[in-house]
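User: I'm putting together a small comparison set for a docking exercise, and I want a reference complex before I start. The sequence is below, and the ligand is NAP. Could you produce the 3D structure with the ligand included, as structure tokens?
Assistant: Of course. I'll restate your input first, then give the structure tokens for the complex.
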Amino acid sequence: MKIAIIGAGNMGGAIAEALLRMDGYKITVSNRTEGKLQRFAAAGASVTTDNCVAAKDADLIILAVKPWLVEDVLNELKANIQLAGKTLVSVAAATRGEQLCDWAGEGPQILTAIPNTAIANLASMTFLVPVRADEATTAQVKALFDGMGSTLVTDEAHLPAATALASCGIAYALRYVRAATEGGVQLGFRAAEAQDIVAQTLRGAVSLLEKEGAHAEAEIDKVTTPGGLTIRGLNAMEEAGFTNAVIQGLLASLSK
Ligand SMILES: NC(=O)c1ccc[n+]([C@@H]2O[C@H](COP(=O)([O-])OP(=O)(O)OC[C@H]3O[C@@H](n4cnc5c(N)ncnc54)[C@H](OP(=O)(O)O)[C@@H]3O)[C@@H](O)[C@H]2O)c1
């Protein structure tokens, strides 16, 4: 499959990095300015500053520019190349499917994808909305993103919640890491050691959840001896508002 990535910033660059590590794709990366393109050329991608050159022969076009630039880029593509028969995947946040259809015109199949920055490490939680796409194309695009993590096909109404939980969620999880690391330093570990310990403990916690039928609270029960230290720690965290702080943070990050 030939894939054009338009916009080589944080997200487009992360997707390009991920795809360049996977077999079976021919990748072209396009960016407004040249500087960001060199590392992708070195990694084996074709690169260009002309979006139409990138998209002309592509089967799939991934649009990774800021939301307010999507309309201009689609107008540019629509005016210069044949979009019919291609698949367009926009990763722009808060861009309605209806607008994408309007801007792209009749031609392409259209999906919205909301990955998170862990996509560069093939560990994204990606949400996929088939805006105007048949089942086969949706399955094909899902398979592509499944190769870069985990993908949930959903509808547009769920995207604000999805973004809060999984895109903003990266920052929330990392803020927990920082808090636990600071606690670890106070308990006597060096900062780098404490961060490694917290990261490995999180990997362990996630691995417990990956077992068939696992439930977070059941795993917590296994480490909370009655009257023991863990339950004292958990209750002290709750007294400081841990669960409520997380829920309030998620609600605050819902886009209107
Ligand atoms: N970062 C995230 O966690 C995340 C998560 C989900 C979705 N998204 C979405 O991903 C999109 C990109 O975000 P980002 O954080 O990657 O932004 P970014 O780092 O600013 O990257 C955007 C890139 O687009 C390039 N660009 C601008 N105009 C262009 C044009 N006309 N043609 C080709 N390239 C052009 C910019 O090049 P120059 O720098 O040379 O101007 C820049 O490299 C946004 O719509 C955002 O909503 C981001």
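The chain has a mean pLDDT of 96. The pocket of NAP is lined by residues 6-12, 30-33, 36, 51, 64-67, 69, 73, 91-93, 114-117, 167 (CB under 6 Å).
User: Thanks, that's exactly what I needed.
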